[in-house]
Design goal:
By secondary structure, the chain is mainly beta. It is built from 2 helices and 20 strands. The strands form 2 sheets. The protein has an 18-stranded antiparallel barrel. A two-stranded antiparallel ribbon has the order 6-7. The two termini are 43 Å apart.
Length: 427
Amino acid sequence: MQKTQKLTLAVLIQAALISTAYASEQSEAKGFIEDAEGSVLFRTGFIDRDKKNVPAGTDTRSSAQSAIFDLESGYTKGIVGFGVGVVGDASFKLGDNKHAGNQMIPKHADGSAYDHWTRGGANVKARISNTEVRYGTQVLDLPVLASNTGRMVPEYFEGTLIKSREIKDLEVVAGKFTKDQYSDQINTDGRHLDNAIVWGAKYKFDDQLNASYYGMDSKDKLDRHYINANYTLPLAEKRSLTLDFNGYHTEWDKEAATNSSSLGNSNVEDRSNNIWSLSGTLNQGAHSVMLAYQQNTGNTGYDYGENADGGQSIYVANSYLSDFNGNHEKSAQVQYNLNFNDYGIPGLNWTTAYVYGWDINVVDTAQEGKEKEFFNQVKYTVQSGFAKDASLRVRNSIYRANDAYQNAYLGDTNEWRIFLDIPVKFF
C-alpha cells in the first residue's frame, strides 16, 4: 500500500516537472474575482417506495424542496494561484413526511422528519501549472469514492484532493478524506469515516479509446480497486458501437460491515468480492440499444456504501434501483434509449431497461436467489429562454425477487422518483 502511495506521489512530482508539455491553466488565470462562478440549484424532489410483500406501514415516502449552492472563486495570478469555494444546501420538507426515508430527509431520534435543515462547508484551493490541490468540503466523483447525488442533496466528503493534468489527455488524482456526511445527515461525519486514501488516473488514447484505474484504502475497513475501458467504433454516418468494461476488486478488513455479513457471513475470513460488467451499445441517430452482462464472484456481494465508501461508488452497467450485486450473482440487461431531438422535441429523452439477475448465493438457504427490474425514465430539459437548463425527471422501477431473495435485499418494490431542477447562475 505504501509503495502505491509513493508511486502516485512520484507521478505527480514528475508531472509538475514536465508542465511545459502543453498550455498551463494557471498561466491563463484572470484573478480571484474575475474568474469567480456562483450558482444555485433549486430542486423539488419526491421518492415513493411501495413495498409489496411486507407488513403494512413499511412503505417510505419523502418530498422536500432544496437550494443547493456552489460558489467558486477564481485563482489569483502568479506562478501559484489561490482560491476558495463553498458548497452547501438549505432544505425544508413538503407535507408531514410521516413515512420519511430513502435517505432523502434527516430524522429526529423519535423518527419524525426535520421540518428544515442546512448543511455544507468551505474549501481552499491552490494551483500551479495544471495541478490543483483542494482541501475542505467536497462533492466527489471518483469510481471508488463517489458522493451520492441521487437524493435531494449531495453527500459531502471532507479532506484533500490533488488533480494533475500536466500531460495532455492524462489526469492523475490522489487524496485523503476523513469525514463523510450522507445526503440525509446533519452530522458532518455521520458515516464515521476514519481515513480513506484514494489514487488513480484516466487517459484518453484517442477519440475512440479511454481507460482508467482507481484505488482506495479505507483504514480498518476495505481496499478497493477499479478499472475501466471504453471503446467507440464508428460504423457509418450517425451509427456507432460502444463497448464499455467496468470492474472492481474489494477486500474487506475484519472491522468492516457488509450486508452479506449481517446475513451470516461475518465469520468468513478474507472476505472479498469481484464484480464486473461488459456492455455494448449500438447508436443509430436518435436511437440506442444496449446489451450488458454483469457478474459477481467471491465470498460476499459487492456491499458498497456500508463503510463510508461513497453512496454512489458502483460504476457498473446493471445499476438502477437494484444494483444486481448479490453474492455470486449474474445478471443481464437490455436497454433502449430514445432522444426526441430528431422528432422535433429537443431536450426530451426516454430510457427503458429490463435487468434479470440469477444464481444468487443466499445465506441459510439452498435455493437460488433471483431478481428482476423493469426501469423507465423520462427527462425533459428546457433548451432556451428564461428557464433554459431547467429539467423535469420522472423515474419508475418495478422490482421483484423470488422467495429465496425476498427478505435478503430490497423485497418486491414499486418506486417512483420525481425531480424538478431549476438552476440559477449568479455570476
